[in-house]
Amino acid sequence: MSRRGWVLFLSLSLIWGIPYLLIRVAVESLEPFFVVFCRVLIASAILIPIAAFRGEFKQLKGHWLWVAVFAIVEITLTWPALNYAETRLSSSFTALIIASVPLVGAIIAWRRGLDVFTGPRLLGLLIGFAGVAALVGLDFGSINPPSVALLVITVIGYAFGPVIISQHLSEVPSIAVIAAALAINTVIFAPMAWIQRPTIVDVPAKAWWSVVILGAVCTAVAFVFFFALVAEVGPARTTVITFMNPLVALVLGILVLSEPITTGILVGFPMVLLGSWMATRKGNPIEAEPAPS
């Protein structure tokens, strides 16, 4: 990998590892739908002018239905679920559950006839899901089951999103797709955001800064970096950041929020990462992006 590739890779590993911390801080003072609305509004305000300047929206003609489907599957269903889950779960636990996205994606690809499983990859799936079971089961007394169910929605959505892009949107500019998806969700979330708008004036500055960073850095800038990284090293290597993000989130949760290191994390974390790596390392024709947090 080139020096530029390493810079982009390490930058994305950090940028897509911190949303869990920022969301946890934001939802302590702001309602989940309001946080999502602000995030998509800020990101779309940055990416729409870029796509428009490049004339990329014209190339979405004939693809708007699948852009809308992608927007709903990848953002509409997943981001509110993730935000609500983090009102009851730690950021580190949340990130580790989301680390199972590659495992679910591999199963989806197999069921749709887009991939085949070798022995090692099947073993990786089993190890990965055993790790998720350890995360949930060993810490069951300290977690909120409905919130875990919301994370399942997020995981499934993040896993299906890349499949939609691979099968239906691979020939159109990616920034235009993301910008359009963000714009669609800005409209979708606006009514609920208005209902959940802050009614107090003393919202902590750290909550507002978390929202700004989520939209500007963790969404808009991150996607620009992502596309640059794909062009530099190819999509296969780019997917490795999926395995780096939970580590960043885990460390930040412990250092910044003083979240505990539980038995489930110690047992399940390495199993999820090992299983994800084994299940996705070879023979996967779907060259998809890591899930945005």
SSE arrangement, N to C = HHHHHHHHHHHHHH
What's the story with the biggest beta sheet? Answer: none
Which stretches are poorly predicted, pLDDT < 50 over at least 5 residues? 284-289
Amino- and carboxy-terminal Cα gap = 25 Å
Supply the number of structural domains. 1
Basic shape? globular
**Rg result:** 18 Å
Query: What's the count of strands?
Result: 0
Number of helical regions: 14
Question: Structural class of the helix and strand makeup?
Answer: mainly alpha
Portion in beta strands: under 5%
How would you characterize this protein structure?
With 293 residues, the protein is mainly alpha-helical. The protein has one domain (3-280). Helix content is 74%, strand content 0%. It contains 14 helices and no strands. Helix 3 runs antiparallel to helix 5 (78-85) and helix 3 packs across helix 11 (205-233). The longest helix has 29 residues, at 205-233. Mean pLDDT is 81; it is low at 284-289.
Attribute tags:
293 residues; mainly alpha
Concise synopsis of the structure shown:
This protein is mainly alpha-helical and 293 residues long. It has helices spanning 3-15, 19-26, 32-53, 64-76, 78-85, 91-98, 101-111, 119-138, 145-168, 174-195, 205-233, 235-238, 241-256, 263-280.
SSE topology:
Elements (H helix, E strand, L loop, with lengths): L2 H13 L3 H8 L5 H22 L10 H13 L1 H8 L5 H8 L2 H11 L7 H20 L6 H24 L5 H22 L9 H29 L1 H4 L2 H16 L6 H18 L13
